[in-house]
Write a structure and sequence with these properties.
The chain is mainly alpha-helical. It has a single domain, classed as Fumarate reductase/succinate dehydrogenase, transmembrane subunit (3 helical TM bundles of succinate and fumarate reductases). Helix content is 72%, strand content 0%. The longest helix has 29 residues. The chain is elongated, with a radius of gyration of 20 Å. The relative contact order is 0.12.
């Protein structure tokens, strides 16, 4: 794990954070995760909307039969994981860009880490809850 070292360079009067906690990730890896998860989320949206458009008289039993299929359950879990990954990369990027020592002083690193920890907890809870919903009885 990289330890946080904030190095400041003057860049038009704004300070930049050169290193943050990143658990050995690279920017290209984050970019790929963000794009791949966006494709999965778009495909799932098209799948759900397609079901509504193709079945004009959608009722509870039709909706339940769609989500009783293994394909839909697996696709839903993959989409849920993609959503959590997408949200994590996005929130990590936002916090490292905007929770800096310029705005929050020397406590910025601790504040950023605490915020990211709570985001991680919330996303983990959503993931567990979603698995319970899709695979519960």
């Amino acid at each position: 794990m990289d330890y946080v070292r904030a190095c400041y360079r003057s860049c038009g009067g704004a300070a930049m954070v050169n290193r943050v906690i990143n658990f050995r990730r690279s920017g290209i890896f984050d970019w790929i995760i963000q794009r791949f998860s966006a494709v999965v989320l778009a495909a799932y949206t098209i799948f759900i909307l397609g079901n509504f458009l193709l079945c004009a008289d959608m009722d509870f039993h039709a909706w339940k039969s769609i989500f009783d299929s293994i394909f839909t359950r697996v696709f839903s879990i993959i989409t849920l994981i993609a959503l959590c990954a997408h949200a994590w990369v996005g929130m990590w990027t936002v916090t490292t860009d905007y929770i800096t020592s310029v705005q929050f002083g020397k406590n910025a690193t601790v504040l950023r880490f605490v915020f990211q920890f709570f985001v991680f907890l919330i996303l983990t809870a959503y993931l567990i809850w979603g698995v319970q919903i899709f695979w519960g009885s």
